[in-house]
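[stage:ingest] chain + small molecule (zinc ion)
[stage:ingest] validated
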Amino acid sequence: MIEVMQLPCLSDNYGFLVHDPETKTTISIDSPDVAVINKALEDRNWSLSAIWNTHHHFDHAGGNAALVERWNCKIIAPKGDAKFIPNADQLVSDGDEVYLGGIMAKVLHTPGHTMGHIIYVFENENIAFVGDTLFALGCGRLFEGGPKEMWPSLQKVMALAPQTMIYCAHEYTADNLRFAITIDPDNPRLIARGREIKTKRENDQWTIPFTLAEDLATNPFLRAADPAIRENLQMQEASDQEVFAEIRQRKDNF
Ligand code: ZN
Ligand code: FE
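[stage:predict] done
[stage:export] tokens:
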């Protein structure tokens, strides 16, 4: 069984070390904060074999060079963001397989936040590292792509096993909750999850990871097909992608 060590980094990022005790292999999902990552590795007596980047933004790949310097680790990076991530040892794209020791993770291309964005799915372990594609009750901003790219990307995530534990890269949940309630005010599961989130944040607890099933029931960005949301937005005749686009736009202006 793999071990995930979750590391608060910068103002609201999470870094993740993923460790296979069998082969004593450790990888870092992205490189948000070198000092935090180095200390965590030293505390556990782990050495870093690779960085697996989700996308090129500074809070995800900014620590690559310093980690390579310290650990002589490899960089696995998304092909579509390659021109912004120097010195990658392996460029990966949709459907590729990468390995933590002997444990396979599937790469899925999820363009939208950036055009090259990828996620890493440990299918047998039901664990997914989704970077800035999906957040608890939210999704990444459309910096490089539009709804036409992001909606199919989110559908790929929605198609994973519902029990998948989703590790996203930011603690944005409380803000996302305030917005989600405006789109789906009568959803009892959202209201109940909202109470849990408030309690957790008041006690300085993380809301990440979460299960895909929870988010499918409560995240308005994944619920473009829901009749109550469509009625609330007066979009009964629109396509799911159009409903998603409207929700994304409202969030940008929230
Ligand atoms: Zn980003
Ligand atoms: Fe980010």
